[in-house]
Amino acid sequence: MVRVAVAGAGAWGANHVRAFARAKGAELVMVCDPSDDALRRAQALAPRARAVKQVEEMLASKDVDAVVLATPAITHAALACHALESGKHVLVEKPLALSTKDAERVVATASRAERVLMVGHLMLYHPVVTRLRTLIDGGELGRIYYLYALRVNLGRLRSDENAMWSLAPHDVSMILHLLGEEPDTVSARGGCYLQQGIEDVAFMNMRFPSGILAQVQLSWLDPCKERRLTIVGSQKMVEFDDVHPVEKLRIYDKGFSRPPQFTEYAEYLSIRNGDVHIPHVSMAEPLELECRHFLDCIEKGTKPLTDGFSALRVVRVLELAQRSLEADGRPIPLGDLGTLS
């Protein structure tokens, strides 16, 4: 049994408490949070777990093998390093850090400590994302032209990070994972409408070496909740709608065809309107799959799908986007951050 402690039992951390309290191969031994209310809610989910308020007590505990950090983003890097140096395996929520320098420090600490470092890029454990990767790798979509993602709602405002840092890690991690490459340049523009100096709306653009373009729209200030990723290829197009209760994946056999012979230029390209296929995807809760993967990596000594290096790539893109935000949308080259180890 892997003995697990969860630091942070707030709105999202409570889900980790629930998941690890019932995960096969894990024993949830401790929950840490400074809030009495959060600890009471956590103990209702995991009555046998000890409740503590100080993270130092959690990290000093000899009966804790692994910690889950579901704390504010600004604390991720420092707490992850502290936990790794204390000999614990670490699952830290996204983003890994709020700067490339801090993310690199966490990755280096994990390497020295020889402990598992995994980052909670939850969408990479979503069964639909797994299917999308299979479609792309198998060539069913043809050449990928562009992607765009929409992650908006009228949601909870944060004061420790803007909407881009809060929401974009989901979509950036998916895009990098699906394409298997990093962007050449990143640009972003945003607006601070509700809180001074904190963007509640942001529009990100990425250009990749292959010529693929990607756009991500993010907002806490929108009338509808939407979680959508669209991929346009030369053969087919797909839409992943995570809000839809049943039809989460649609494959469109649509595009332009190039006939082998033509006499008029207007005949060169013709629209192809084929079928729309809604495949069955066996669903499982992504958080449950993520937690199981973390435990498997600890037990088998294997590298996580969302390891420190993959999370570092996401942080690099977000830092470029932040610099572009501050430069009113000027595209920032990846080379400005140096070479990834």
Description:
The protein has 341 residues and is an alpha/beta fold. The chain folds into two domains: 2-121, Rossmann fold (3-Layer(aba) Sandwich); 124-285 and 317-335, 2-Layer Sandwich (Dihydrodipicolinate Reductase, domain 2), CATH 3.30.360.10. It is built from nine helices and 15 strands. The chain has helices spanning 13-21, 36-45, 55-60, 76-85, 100-113, 127-137, 163-179, 286-300, 308-326; strands at residues 2-7, 26-32, 50-52, 66-69, 89-93, 117-120, 144-152, 185-191, 201-207, 213-219, 226-233, 237-241, 249-257, 270-277, 332-333. Strands 14-13-12-11-7-10-9-8-15 form a nine-stranded mixed beta sheet. Helix 1 packs parallel to helix 2, helix 4 runs parallel beside helix 5 and helix 6 (127-137) crosses helix 7. The longest helix is centred in the last third of the chain and has 19 residues, at 308-326. The protein is globular and about 75 Å long. The chain starts with a strand and ends in an 8-residue tail after the last strand.
For this structure, what is the CATH class of the largest domain?
Answer: Alpha Beta
Morphology: globular
> What number of structural domains do the residues give?
2
Tell me the name of the CATH homologous superfamily of the largest domain.
Answer: Dihydrodipicolinate Reductase, domain 2
The sequence of SSEs as H and E is EHEHEHEHEHEHEHEEEEEEEHHE
Query: Biggest sheet, in brief?
Result: 9 strands, mixed
Strand coverage percent = 25-35%
Count of DSSP helices? Answer: 9
Oligomer: single chain
Contiguous runs where pLDDT drops below 50 for at least 5 residues: none
Total E-strand runs: 15
- Going across the biggest sheet, name each strand in turn: 14-13-12-11-7-10-9-8-15
CA-CA gap between termini: 34 Å
- CATH overall fold name of the largest domain: Dihydrodipicolinate Reductase, domain 2
Based on the structure given, which CATH architecture of the largest domain is correct?
2-Layer Sandwich
Query: Can you give the mean pLDDT?
Result: 93
Share of helix, binned? 25-40%
Roughly how many Å is the radius of gyration?
21 Å
Protein structure class: alpha/beta
